[in-house]
Design a protein that fits this description.
Layout: E1 2-7, H1 11-23, E2 26-32, E3 40-41, E4 44-45, E5 62-65, H2 70-82, E6 90-91, E7 96-97, E8 102-103, E9 108-109, E10 114-115, E11 120-121, E12 126-127, E13 132-133, E14 138-139, E15 144-145, E16 150-151, E17 156-157, E18 162-163, E19 168-169, E20 174-175, E21 180-181, E22 186-187, E23 195-198, E24 203-207
Parallel strand pairs: 1-2, 1-5, 6-9, 7-10, 8-11, 9-12, 10-13, 11-14, 12-15, 13-16, 14-17, 15-18, 16-19, 17-20, 18-21, 19-22, 21-23
Antiparallel strand pairs: 3-4, 23-24
The structure holds acetyl coenzyme *A (ACO).
Acetyl coenzyme *A binds next to strand 23.
Domain PglD N-terminal: 3-79
Protein name: Acetyltransferase
Keywords: Repeat, Transferase
Length: 212
C-alpha cells in the first residue's frame, strides 16, 4: 500500500479524502493546508502548509490537490508532478465510470458521478457529486463539473471551465476555456472563452477579457 498526501483540507478536501479512504488503496492519508489552526480534519492529520510539500516526498509517494479554484489546483498539481509525486485518479466507489472512458491524473470522481463510454477527461478535474459526463465528451484540464450538473453526449469543455451546480449542457456543443456556467443554466449553443453565462437558455452575462 502507498501513502497519500492531499493538498487542501477544506470542504472539498474532506470529500476527496473520504473518497480516497473508501477505495482502500492508501493506508496512510495526510493533509497539507495553509490554515495553521487545523490539526485534524475528519480524523486525518494536517501535517504542514502547502509549501512543506517537498519535506513529505519520502513518506508520501502519491499526492492530489483538493483546491476548488481551477487554476490554483492545476498550478499545485504541476508542482507536485515535477517533484516526482505520483498523481493518482481518485474514483469514489459509488460512482459509475465506463471502462471505455479515459481519465488523466489528479482528477477526482465523487459519489454518484457517472462517466459514459468514450468520454475523455484530462488532468486535475473535479467531477463532483452526482454530476454526469455522457458519451464522447472531451473535458479539458482543470475543469470543475459541480454537483448535479449534466453534460450530454459529444460535448467539449475546454481548460479551466467551471459548470455550476445543476447546470445542463445539451449535446454536440463546445464550451470555451475559463468559462463559468452559472448554477442551473441550460447551455444550448457554443460558448466562447472567458465568459460567464447564466439562465435558461444560457446567455453571456460577463466577459473576462484579459483578467483570467
Ligand atoms: C460541493 C460544492 O459546493 S461545489 C460548488 C458549487 N457552487 C456553485 O455551483 C456556485 C455557482 N455560482 C454561481 O452560479 C454564481 O452566481 C456565479 C459564479 C455564476 C456568478 O457570481 P458573480 O460573479 O458574483 O455574479 P453576480 O451575482 O454579480 O451576477 C451577475 C449577473 O448574473 C446573474 N446570475 C448569476 N448567477 C445566476 C444564476 N445561477 N442564474 C441566473 N442568473 C444568474 C445575476 O442575476 C446578475 O444578473 P444582472 O447583471 O442581470 O443583474
Amino acid at each position: 500500500m502507498e501513502n497519500l498526501l492531499i493538498l487542501g483540507a477544506g470542504g472539498h478536501g474532506k470529500v476527496v479524502a473520504e473518497a480516497a479512504m473508501l477505495t482502500g488503496r492508501w493506508d496512510d492519508i495526510a493533509f497539507l493546508d495553509n490554515d495553521t489552526t487545523l490539526n485534524r480534519v475528519i480524523g486525518i492529520p494536517v501535517i504542514g502548509s502547502f509549501d512543506t510539500y517537498l519535506d513529505h516526498s519520502k513518506a508520501y509517494s502519491s499526492a492530489v490537490v483538493a483546491i476548488g479554484n481551477n487554476e490554483n489546483r492545476f498550478v499545485w498539481l504541476t508542482k507536485l508532478e515535477q517533484a516526482g509525486f505520483k498523481i493518482p485518479v481518485i474514483i469514489h466507489p459509488s460512482s459509475i465510470v465506463s471502462k471505455f472512458s479515459q481519465i488523466e491524473s489528479g482528477t477526482v470522481v465523487l459519489a454518484g458521478a457517472v462517466i459514459n463510454a468514450d468520454a475523455s477527461i484530462a488532468k486535475g478535474c473535479i467531477l463532483n457529486t452526482s454530476s454526469t459526463i455522457d458519451h464522447d465528451c472531451v473535458i479539458g484540464n482543470g475543469v470543475h463539473v459541480s454537483p448535479g450538473a449534466n453534460v450530454s453526449g459529444t460535448v467539449t469543455i475546454n481548460d479551466f471551465s467551471w459548470l455550476g451546480v445543476g447546470a445542463s449542457i445539451v449535446n454536440n456543443i463546445t464550451i470555451g476555456s475559463h468559462v463559468i456556467v452559472a448554477a442551473g443554466a441550460v447551455v444550448i449553443s457554443d460558448i466562447p472563452d472567458s465568459v460567464m453565462v447564466a439562465g435558461v437558455p444560457a446567455q453571456i452575462k460577463q466577459s473576462y477579457g484579459d483578467e483570467l
